[in-house]
Recover the amino acids of this structure.
């Protein structure tokens, strides 16, 4: 559906503006323009599409379709189910550049970065192709005389995924294939800021053969999320986004008996020991701190420099910063695109102001950056602080922008104390040439995803992804076997086939396993 826009100036002709649709029961559900909100291209600051604002009626309709479709999907033979994942994998691969371009247009990140996000999502689809193996249960013979136990894993029913703006393909692809492979029907509630690639994903799942109703997409904000959290027929929710919203989903969802996993905000620290390859560490700090404009939950935004190494690293980082190209993410050669919204750009600027007020040394100031030909775009330059110390707000809080802070400590022990003392625990990295120090770090640090000379240690798509403290709520990591555990209910079936003439005598004693 398209509507005609009012011309912005006398010169501009009316432009047809795409209106995205909810996707319910295998088809788009069109909405009136007044039920939609704008989608911006952050590189130009222009509205490029409109996205529906859904709520309870749309969630109810999606759940009704899911409930209807679920029994047949649960009972679909595993090989037939896995064929759909093979087909979806091929379609997603074929359309990967299209998906990446849609991400860049809504989000602003570079096309190259968006493309890797798509392929890292496809890794989890590939894992799900092996679902007949992953879903096999366990058989324990002879738990008692003539008694065996069979462990089954069965789907929960209707489940939901609530996903953030920053990975509109990768994060849904980390959740959906696992939930669907386990035999569930899924309601996806993506971020309204970056919705364009979602529509295409829903279409590709249908083309791959996923039955209608097994995947629905409802756009919207708090109203749609509340409808999901309160719906009695939604059995589990995986949420990825900020800590305050994740806490709301977790607390309200679990209160209603749902299984909830929330993967939330972060402030990741990269520890650099003096013995490290400093060129590698400087590259890593710049790539991790400023890639995707710092809008990654695994960005290392605090560089903890041990034993005076900051004096050597700082000029090396400055040199790299001076060569970064900030531009439209679709332009080849761009290192960093714009910030995803005007409001978030303003919030990052406030954080930089705050760091200056708090007494950190602002070595590079990204605030004045204006794009020469797209001044309306949501661009910001990169910023570097030195002498950031614990207790500062810019040390404690997630900024989610291109702002890197150097923290100086004298010893490894001080560094690990800082890492373990932070309220967030998502990812961390250590840069060192000392295998013993790296080993110690893996064992001692309380952060669940660790890189050794790897700045963004996002585990491969077939492994689990987790968090701790304020970076995750819930018991199980997502993806991999843990994801399958999350999206299935385990049953233990205790079985006896009495031999003829050997029926046990009546006894009121608790059954002994003998
Ligand atoms: P967000 O919390 O604003 O939004 C996440 C989801 O919740 C979206 O679908 C959004 O529409 C919905 N939502 C937003 N406000 C809401 C409200 N008031 N009530 C109910 N629902 C609401 O997060 P975001 O800005 O989209 O994403 C950035 C955040 O996500 C950062 O904090 C980042 O660290 C985190 N993140 C975490 C991971 C992880 O795996 N730990 C991965 C990616 C992003």
């Amino acid at each position: 559906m398209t509507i005609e826009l009012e011309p912005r100036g006398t010169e501009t002709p009316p432009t047809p503006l795409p209106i995205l649709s909810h996707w319910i029961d295998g088809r788009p559900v069109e909405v009136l323009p007044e039920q939609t909100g704008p989608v911006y291209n952050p590189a130009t600051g222009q509205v490029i599409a409109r996205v529906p604002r859904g709520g309870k009626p749309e969630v109810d309709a999606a759940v009704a379709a899911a409930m209807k479709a679920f029994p047949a999907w649960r009972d679909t033979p595993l090989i037939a189910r896995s064929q759909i994942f093979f087909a979806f994998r091929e379609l997603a691969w074929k359309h990967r550049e299209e998906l990446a371009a849609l991400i860049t247009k809504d989000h602003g990140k570079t096309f190259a970065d968006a493309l890797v996000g798509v392929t890292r999502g496809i890794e989890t689809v590939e894992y799900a192709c092996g679902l007949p193996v992953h879903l096999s249960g366990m058989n324990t013979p002879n738990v008692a005389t003539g008694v065996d136990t069979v462990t089954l894993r069965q789907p929960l029913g209707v489940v939901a995924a609530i996903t953030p703006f920053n990975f509109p393909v990768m994060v849904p692809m980390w959740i959906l294939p696992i939930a669907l492979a386990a035999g569930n029907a899924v309601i996806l509630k993506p971020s309204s800021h970056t919705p364009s690639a979602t529509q295409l994903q829903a279409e590709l799942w249908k083309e791959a053969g996923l039955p209608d109703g097994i995947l629905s997409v409802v756009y919207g904000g708090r109203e749609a999320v509340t409808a999901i959290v309160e719906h009695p027929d939604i059995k589990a929710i995986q949420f990825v986004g900020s800590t305050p919203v994740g806490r709301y989903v977790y607390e309200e969802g679990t209160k209603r008996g749902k299984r909830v996993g929330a993967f939330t905000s972060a402030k990741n620290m990269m520890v650099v020991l003096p013995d490290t390859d400093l060129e590698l560490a400087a590259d890593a700090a710049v790539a991790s701190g400023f890639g995707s404009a710092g809008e990654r939950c695994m960005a290392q935004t605090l560089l903890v420099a041990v034993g005076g190494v900051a004096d050597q690293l700082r000029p090396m980082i400055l040199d790299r910063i001076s060569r970064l190209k900030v531009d439209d993410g679709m332009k080849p050669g761009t290192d960093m695109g714009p910030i995803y919204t005007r409001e978030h750009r303003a919030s990052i600027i406030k954080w930089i102001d705050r760091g200056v007020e708090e007494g950190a040394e602002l070595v590079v100031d990204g605030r004045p950056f204006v794009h020469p030909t797209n001044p309306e775009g949501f661009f910001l330059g990169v910023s570097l602080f030195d002498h950031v110390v614990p207790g500062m707000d810019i040390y404690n809080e997630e900024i989610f922008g291109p702002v890197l802070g150097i923290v100086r400590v004298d010893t490894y022990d001080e560094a690990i104390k800082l890492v373990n003392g932070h309220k967030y625990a998502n990812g961390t990295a250590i840069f060192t040439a000392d295998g013993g120090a790296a080993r110690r770090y893996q064992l001692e640090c309380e952060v669940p995803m660790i890189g050794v000379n790897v700045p963004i240690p996002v585990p491969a798509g077939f492994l689990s992804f987790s968090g701790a403290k304020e970076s995750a709520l819930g018991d199980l990591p997502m993806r991999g076997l843990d994801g399958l555990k999350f999206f299935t209910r385990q049953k233990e079936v205790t079985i006896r086939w009495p031999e003829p003439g050997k029926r046990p005598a009546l006894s009121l004693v608790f059954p002994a396993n003998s």
Observations:
- Residues 1-11 have pLDDT under 50 and may be disordered.
- The two ends are 69 Å apart (CA to CA).
- The first helix runs from residue 56 to 74.
- The first strand starts at residue 2 and ends at 4.
